[in-house]
Amino acid sequence: MRDALAERLLATVLDWTPADIARERPILQALALLKYDEYQQFSPGMRFVESLALWLEQFQPEERLIAYDFVRSRLVFLSESEMAHFVAVMYPDFLRPMLLARAAATDRLSPFRVSRVANTSTFRRLQTSTLFFGLSDGARIDQFRRSNRELSHEQIFSSYDLPKERVEELRSWLAKQHRDDKVVPAIVLLDDFGGSGASYIREENGKLKGKIAKFLQRITSDDWKGIVKFPETLVVVALYVATEQALKNIRAGATQLEHTFGATLELAPVQLLDDRLSILASSPEPFVRLVEKYYDAAVEDEHTKKGGTDLKYGFAGCGLPLVLHHNTPNNSLFLLWVEDSDTIRPLFERFSRHRRES
Amino acid sequence: MKDLRNPFRLQAAEHIESDIDFLKLFGPGVLDLLPENAPFARTQFIRSAPGGGKTSLLKLFTPSVLNTLVALGSYSEYKDLFQRLKQLGAVDENDICVVGVMLPCGRTFPALADLGFPTPRARRLLLALLDARIMLGALRSALTARRLRYPADLARVYIETTADDGHPPGLSLPCDGNAARAWAESLEQSICNVIDSLAEPEGAGPSGHDSLLMLKLLDSGTLRVDLTPPAARWLLLLDDVQKLTSDQRGALRETLVEQRSHTTVWVAERLEALSQDELLGSGALKGRDYGDVINLEEAWRRTPRRFESAIATIAERRARMAADVATGDAVGSFAAIVDGALDTVDRVDRTLEALAVVSARARASAIKDPKYSEWILVREEIEGSPREKLLAWRGLEILIERHRRKNQLSFGFALGREELEDKDGSDIKAAAELLLAKEFGFPYYFGPSRLASLGSFNVEQYLRLAGDLFEESLARGLLRQQPNLSPERQQEILGGAYEARVKDLPRRAKNGRDVLNFLDAVGTFCRDVTYQSNAPYAPGVNGIAISMEERKTLLDSGAIKGNPSNARFAQMLATALAHNLLHAELDKSVKNQRWMILYLNRLVCLKYSLPLHVGGFREKPLRDLVSWMERGYRLSKSEMLAL
User: Domain end: A250, A275, A300, which one?
Assistant: First the structure.
């Protein structure tokens, strides 16, 4: 649809006067140009303004302005360049200081004497033998590698599921690097977004589940013997974007991990999403009425039930008004991303791992 | 270019990426403000408030823009501009005649001042850094002038040995463009290293230059491309000079004046760079073009018709560009969207209603006092449209009120037609229009001419206002409505301009709050004076005046020291003048005294419903004005009674 047609549709849907259009159109166009048009799950030819017009059209006329105001004032869209920035600053601004602090403590130096600490063999060993693993495609390992030239490619892995041969190669590389001391000081698990934290660690039927638990089980197997030793090896969960709720849940799970594996876990979130960002049933915002009214329970399935709530406010009731440029997290408000519904359409179509068979 | 939908929003020349788009949008009117031989004359200072059009003017003389213009000069769209530049000698039929080297002064130079070096060393480093950047700019411009690529074709640049020994130290001549570039980059880097160094910088780094040696090198004509000079003349274009510190500006000005270089130098700076004394002093404000300084707003003020025509051209070009991108909503002409007449069929009823009210009031006055009967008869006989009649009747009311106030004790002789004709001037008509607007809610701020006045002789201010109107016209197009805007709607849209453009001054200027307080007081005062039933200063007042004697005390550093309120007022005034929120006219003679008149920016007039004409002002003692700034607008009892 041509931009002008989409804008005309939007103006009709919202019953805008020329004054309204003159006020709102430059803002919408700027938002679309700077961010929203880059959403990767829009179907070919679809752009933000068209999607917005069609999304608003499904509400009652008197509700449309409420929905529009929500998009204008509450929606948080993290663009490609913002995510790339988070990746670029993860090591220098978050992980490296953590390693520097650890080196300073080991060598009993003041952590404020950064140059001195950075020149110690302790820090150099920490930096050159810490291992980095991507927990999903969102970890953007390629960008992480390119952004951190002080790290060797041999330390960085795009997946946390290494075949046995690759573990052996790693063992040899570590031996070559550090001869007698092959135990890695830290393992960093990189991922793009933590919404509820449930995919990282949760308890199901009395058992620990999730990516972190799965990973720790793997590296405590015989294959990894001599490379990883807890608590000497620190585990860092490094998230480019994370909610407070996710961090709280991961921290809660960390106690159990320590108990089960003896591992100490630390968190390194780059962009923290404050709890106040969330929109919940108790929020006074008028958009809540629409969330309640237009909910389609038919989209729930066995996967969504793991969150322990319905999906009105997203998976696990996170209530996020959040969209990432490549996909919309299911922790966001249902109305933003709803998939496979016959009654309601999303503003930002979501691509799901657990897509239903059509 | 990112957003062509509303090209009025493209305000800074540096944001217009393509040369063709830049030329399409450039209004040649500003070239009329330059002296005939400007590109070949001595150093020229170009000053204005932000948005006056300095950068656009400088960019026009850069080689890539001039080359594009030479190529497109025969097309009707560019013909005017091409001919004007040809008259100035910047281009001929086939080629460009000046090579502009544009150098923005915002980067690095201010950091150099922060090092705290003694003045001579700071000056030498400043000149060295300027030389390095001029060399890099000159190499790029020379190649661009010949339509070659930078840096790929640097080997085709050759710098011969100069006759005198004034060439820059460290640069071995003769050399090619690559060697010259390496020299400039290395010099620039060494100075940046001094800035970046955490060690004590004193004594470190290059020794610097004692004059602008690159100007001497350019003067010598030894920089050639394929063995010939890139054009007849070099033109050094220094932009954003207000970003230099006051000492740096002083050093640069001294050097340029002392050096008397053959190469023409244009220095563009905002008025805010000027000191308080310069702003309040006669040099900057008298509005005289004394050869070396062009104050753009001042120059336009001297020829308001020319300003109106120049910005009308700019507006038309922008509207045409919007139509060219074929969004389907743009009408392609700005004049077509700004209705300029109230005398239209759809307003007849409202006008007739107002006419009935006003004429009845005037007749009632005549019944009470029969000496005005003849005047009433004259108005009864008047012919014209309802609006013309309405203005005439309201004008009559003003004249009756004036006569009544002045002649309370006069005999009751009937007043004749001739007396009415004598008194009934254009000022009365203008006052009548303003008073009718207030009484009956007719729009006043609309139409091309008043829109131009609201620009206050600043191109950016005009473009912002016009852009607001154009945006709504596009919106109407989107809804398939007529794209033109009624006078009422124009006034409504423009009404928000003060809040949008002036209110944020405290964020932009350190004493912005004082300026806003003062503008508010002056605006309120002018409104009180303007809206009197006898319209004593028809069409109204939009300025205040301080005696030249009192102005002197603001410039006297000794007197200022002992009077913090006056010092604060002087600072406030300098800020308001630098931001074009006040405009000063000096040495105006009124009632045997000399006055400095301070006229309000037209956006302030809009906020306080004041007329846009130039001329109406009231004299006020300095102490009253200082008190207005500090405590807000207050009138004495006698003033209140007089009103």
Answer: A275
Q: Is the same domain home to A154 and A211?
A: yes
Q: Which of B471, B476, B478 sits opposite A26 (nearest CB)?
A: B471
The one-letter amino acid at B161: T
Task: Identify whether the C-beta of residue B358 lies closer than 8 Å to the C-beta of residue B387.
Answer: no
| Assigned domain for A354 exists | no
CA distance B365 to A104: 95
Task: Based on the fold, state whether residues A293 and A148 are members of the same structural domain.
Answer: no
Residues B456 and B492: their CA atoms lie apart, in Å, by: 19
Residue B1, pLDDT above cutoff 70 = no
pTM: 0.84
What value, to the nearest 5°, has the Cα angle with vertex B429 and ends B427 and B430? 65
Does A128 fall in a domain?
Answer: yes
3-state secondary structure B483-533: CCECHHHHHHHHHCHHHHHCCCHHHHCCCHHHHHHHHHHHHHHHHHHHCCC
Q: Count CB neighbours of B221 within 10 A.
A: 15
pLDDT digits (tens, 9 = 90+) for B265-293: 999 998 877 777 777 764 443 333 334 78
Q: Looking at residues B504-522, what average pLDDT do you find?
A: 93
* A273, A241 Cβ separation under 8 angstroms: yes
The pLDDT assigned to A355 comes to 57
Record the tokens describing residue B531, joined without a space. 């809206």
Q: Is there a contact between A194 and A200 (Cβ–Cβ < 8 Å)?
A: yes
Q: How far apart are the first and last CA of chain B?
A: 54
Helix residue ranges per DSSP H, B165-295: 177-196, 213-220, 246-259, 276-280, 282-285
Domain boundary among A275, A293, A320: A275
B478 CB neighbours in chain A (<8 A) are: 4, 7-8, 11, 18, 21, 25
Contact B267, B42 (CB under 8 A): no
Q: What's the one-letter identity of residue B393?
A: W
Cβ atoms B329, B478 nearer than 8 A: yes
Whole-number Å distance between alpha carbons of B187 and A272: 44
Q: Does A115 touch chain B (CB under 8 A)?
A: no
- Cβ-nearest to B478 among A11, A19, A33: A11
CA dihedral of residues B281, B283, B284, B290 (deg, nearest 10): 170
- Ranking A148-152, A305-309, B511-515 by mean pLDDT, the lowest is A305-309
Closest CA to A299 of A346, A230, A258: A346
A26 vs B contacts (CB less than 8 Å): 6, 9, 471
Q: Is the dihedral of CA B116, B189, B251, B253 positive or negative?
A: negative
Radius of gyration of chain A measured on its C-alpha atoms: 23
Measured between alpha carbons, how far is B152 from B90 in angstroms, rounded to an integer? 27
Q: For residue B328, what is the nearest residue in chain A, using CA coordinates?
A: A4
User: How many C-beta atoms lie closer than 10 Å to residue B165's C-beta?
Assistant: 6
* Residue bearing tokens 């850069």: B62
Per-residue DSSP letter, B414: P
ipTM confidence score = 0.79
Regarding whether A314 and A267 lie in a shared domain, the answer is no
* Contact in structure between A132 and A142 (CB atoms under 8 Å): no
**Same domain flag for A307 and A170:** no
**Residue in B468, B479, B491, B494 to test binding to A, most A beta-carbons within 10 Å:** B479
Q: Is the peptide bond before B174 cis (omega within 30 degrees of 0)?
A: yes
Task: Say if residue A178 is in the same domain as residue A224.
Answer: yes
